[in-house]
Amino acid sequence: MREKVVVGMSGGVDSSVAAYLLKEQGYEVIGVTMQIWQDGAGEEACDSQGCCGLSAVEDARRVAQALEIPHYVMNFRQEFKCRVIDYFVEEYMQGRTPNPCIACNRYVKWEALLDRSLAIGADYIATGHYARIARLPNGRFSVRRGVSEKKDQTYALYSLTQEQLAHTLMPVGEYEKAEVRAIASRLGLPVAQKPDSQEICFVPDDDYAGFIDGQAPGRVPGPGDFVGGEGKVLGRHKGITHYTIGQRRGLGLPGEKRVYVTEIRPDANEVVIGDNETLFTREVICDSVSFMAIEDLEAPMRVLAKIRYNHKGEYCRIEKLPDGKVRALFESPVRAATPGQSICFYDGEYVCGGGIITGG
């Protein structure tokens, strides 16, 4: 009997080719598009991005028809609202900058989808991520960097559990993006040249603050003071949800000198302004830590760490603190370690683990 795999089909070229590759490998493939868009503005936002909205269903349906595999739509609205949208809004209102894609991967694309897929008799779920899954000599599963260095998506997958990894396939991790598009073109798939989604799928026009205002009316912090490091008031800000660490544009402060957001203080409703040099640190603390290639951090370990998705990474020594948090001591300073963002640890090509940055 053939093993059964549910492919999360977003209507994009990567997940479409993933479904094709797995069918060619002999799996019984079922395509599923996750209905995660919300009513009203949320629905319009998702659809405008084309990665999780109404257009995605039609694109995925046409691909499934071309590949001659069944296709279904599963409703994950509640999970997405609770685990992703509400989390995103609350984090920004606390002065942090969350990464909703990491939360979506862990709790929606994997936890919720895998549970339902196993319940209908599937052996695996699969996605179009540019990453690979490997079984290490110590018996643990880890995510390995994809062949395509430019498209590598391992940073956003560090929080997946051993159970999830054991039931996951990522076939496009063995290919470059150009190769994936070439396969789709050769097959005549209707999404072969569909552009990649670039922004957060549920936020229209990249207007985070406007989205948060709509989700939490009456609760969003209003205008407050820009202050210097010494506490001097420099001007008025529009509300802390408009800013993130390292931001320079859109501050509206007078003066020719370039200044940056260096800290956000939600309790005082203040945004701290400083020089670029103040954004650099050698120490980053993180909590909500997940380990992958190792079961736990029993002794200090040298790893390569990325503090944001497009960070090239720097070497550091990680060590566990008494309260369960992890401290990363970098060999070279890193810029704008932002509370709420994730830090991902690598041991060679393999994801060692990661956590949520609390400070630097």
Give the termini separation: 53 Å
- The helix tally amounts to 8
Look at the helices and sheets and give the structural class: alpha/beta
CA radius of gyration:
21 Å
The order of strands across the largest sheet is 12-15-14-13-16-17
- Principal-axes shape call: globular
| Mean pLDDT over the full residue set | 93
Can you put this structure into words, describing what you see?
The strands form four sheets. A six-stranded antiparallel β-barrel has the order 12-15-14-13-16-17. α1 crosses α7 and α4 packs antiparallel against α5. Helix content is about 25%, strand content about 30%. It has about 350 residues and is α/β, with parallel strands linked by helices. The chain has eight helices and 17 strands. About 0% of the residues have low confidence.
Which features characterize this protein?
single chain; 360 residues; alpha/beta; six-stranded antiparallel barrel; five-stranded parallel β-sheet
Set out the fold topology.
Layout: E1 4-8, H1 13-24, E2 28-35, H2 41-49, H3 54-67, E3 71-75, H4 77-93, H5 100-119, E4 124-126, E5 131-135, E6 141-145, H6 162-166, E7 168-169, H7 177-187, H8 208-215, E8 224-228, E9 233-237, E10 260-265, E11 270-274, E12 280-291, E13 301-306, E14 314-320, E15 326-335, E16 342-347, E17 350-359
Helix pairs in contact: 1-7, 4-5
Quick recap:
With 360 residues, the chain is of the alpha/beta class.
